[in-house]
Amino acid sequence: MTNSPPPDPRSSRTPLGFDEFLAVVLALAALGGILFWSLSRSGRGFQIPNILPLVTAPEARSPVAVSPQPQASPEPRAELAPIPSPAPEAIAPETPVTPRRQPVAPFPAIVPVPTRPTTPASPEPSPAPQVKFQDVPADYWAYPFITALAERGIVNGFPGGYFKPTDPVTRAEYAAILQEAFNQLPGVDNQTKYIDVPDTFWGVPAINRAIQTGFLRGYPDNTFQPQQEIPKAQVLVSLASGLNLAPPAIPEQVLKELYVDADQIPNYAREKIAAATTSGLVVNYPDAKQLNPNSNATRADVAAIVYQALVKAGRLDPIQSPYIAGVQPQ
What we know:
Residues 129-192, 193-253, 256-320 form the SLH domain. The protein is 42% helix and 0% strand.
């Protein structure tokens, strides 16, 4: 019996079959193709997609190659599937841009909001209460007449917030009040030169205006006497003349019935004062029946009488006062 040498352990390998060789070649080819495809992707870099299903084509003879590859296949496909989705997501944010601009639409609704504060401001247009004089309290008899004219710039006060209601009024000062009160009335285009009114006198425009509108006249000696304190009778005569007030049918009867001192009214003024009385221009303080025609008119007297003349002219609303004599305007 011949002793044969022991077999070489290296010769125990099974030669590679055709099927295994073909699987290896296909796997390498697939890897190369996927590597080339991955490198050709712009901005993606090198990525290994799911290639393991290609290896599962051969029979599961070699557990080394087949067993791990089916488990890795779900995860790479989950990474490749979202690749097309980033592009729609980048475009989708542009559609919400229009909703962000739509907040501009509510602005027209907000624009009226600033206008609402202007409605509370409308009560303020009456700057009337802002004209106050320290020597004309609210309970003063001529307070409503003085403040109403002061608010319209027809009469003015003195420095320090005083009106000086009991001070007398000169003829020049009275002409200035008439100019402010009846500046809308037409007048004749003429100028009268008075020997006592120089061209540089401050009251020249007002005096000329009072003459042109028929409220005042000079004296027969061609003087105007601008610094003379004007009596109450002249104030009433001037207003009745400038407004062309018609006298009553029986002037004397009106004067005697309404004034306890009617006999003191000058003859030149009787008819005009009767016309002023029946028109509601006469205001007497403290007694409505006491005219005091020859006393100098105070600033309060002039304010009250001029106010009543503006009521008669339809420029102002009537004021209820117990000191208005005669027939009050309707």
